[in-house]
Write a sequence for this structure.
């Protein structure tokens, strides 16, 4: 596994190289896009959606800048 980070694009790539005993190999690419609340709201707006609620995580915890993740409930405008 190799991880590549692209700060300017707020993206990381996890690249998995899988090898079998028979010599066959496969490569799996897992791209992850990172958002701040502001950049995610911009993405939502561009898709015709709006932020209804900003939460600290998917369990409904109150939002805090100190938490490593957040969740958004969006609605169509």
């Amino acid at each position: 596994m190799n991880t590549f980070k692209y700060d300017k694009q707020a993206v990381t790539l996890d690249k998995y190289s899988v090898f079998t005993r028979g010599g066959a190999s496969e490569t799996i690419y897992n791209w992850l896009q990172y958002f701040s609340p502001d950049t995610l709201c911009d993405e939502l707006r561009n898709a015709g959606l709006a932020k209804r609620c900003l939460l600290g995580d998917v369990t409904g915890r109150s939002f805090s800048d100190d938490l490593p993740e957040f969740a958004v409930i969006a609605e169509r405008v």
Notes: Strands lie at 2-6, 11-19, 25-33, 49-55, 71-76. Residues 37-46 form the longest helix (10 residues).
